[in-house]
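Example A, followed by Example B.
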Amino acid sequence: MTSDLLAKSKNRGEKKQKIQHIDYNEFEQVIEVNKLISQFDNAIERLKDDFTQHLSVRSSIGAIEMMSVKFEGKDFTLQELAQISRKPKLIVLNVSTFPQAIPDILKSLMKNQMKLNPQQDGTTIYIPILKVTKEHREMLSKNAKSFYVKCCDNVRQIRNKQIKVIKQKEKLAKDLVFRIESYIDILSQQYMSKAEQMLETKQKELVGDSE
């Protein structure tokens, strides 16, 4: 994967900064390339998770099931704490197995950006599925942009931290440092472009999806 990314980056890098070819072995000797790629991948995965958990137009069972609930100091998905079923215009949570988790579940449901309005009856929680308005779609689209910005910030932080490490290394030739820094920059730009594509796709889904 890394070598493919570097190969794809070469032409764009030369146009931007006139970088000469750098082979993978040289790159790997200076930094832990696979670790860097993994960190960038994790930033994209967090963006995917944010989109899935917080930006559902239809308040689907899938989004509800994966919702995070902090219970007794630990993070759980809602499906780990409740049995979830669906009725017409209603999602039903059976929390009889972990009734002590009900306050935390209600808190997570009410603060979620899907604007849920849960109603408790004993150990059962009912969640009405509201009609999705144009305003709600637009609000979700704006929230998607916020998650995208956060992802790009994470990518930049990873990039800046890695470049700082490079600059602190001793006995590296200046031209080598320049090439390595430039390739780190190219990789970060690739990941931000990927995040932007994900944002465009999600916003089209949120605003253009029809009921």
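Example B, a separate protein, is given below in the same form.
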Amino acid sequence: MIEEKGILFILSGPSGVGKGTVRKEVFKRKTELRYSISMTTREKRPGEVDGVDYFYKTNDEFEKLIEQGKLLEYAKFVNNYYGTPKDYVLETLDRGHDVFLEIEVQGAMQVKQNFPEGVFIFLFPPSLEELKNRITNRGTEEEDVILNRLKEARNEIEMMDAYDYVVVNDDVDKAVDKIQSIIQSEHCKRERIAAQYKKLLEDELS
């Protein structure tokens, strides 16, 4: 019997493109996917559970994990570390579960360096004008912040070549349909299962 390992899928794209919305819809449809739980040094908020919302670590513990190369990616925001624990992801993949990671572009580039066999999906805005509207309509940003976000988005879009797939998010349902097709097609790739079939044939013929 073929024992297929899980695949790490990384959904990424510029701020305001709708990564969170698309990821939530993907999980509504594909309940067998595992979400990559992040690790953080921030304080646990009321109602949050260790190992469900985040893996909570002290600053020293987190920095030790960085030194040991135990994070697929990490960043520091407002004096707190956030990152993706390597062991959790690898153990989940070994159990045959696909892992889904929704992340900023800089983080995705770190993951690509540490785990190049992942499948990288770039979520693309229908246009820069539409992206500007989405960022502006949040109503939470000042004009200079919006301009900086747009500049950053242009830079991030130029990094698209590092990804395996590009999905335009002009309609959430259509974007999710495409991501589901990507997940399905990746499981059918010859190079993923050829080695397992060869081993199975060898076992049967020996």
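On Example B: The mean pLDDT is 88.
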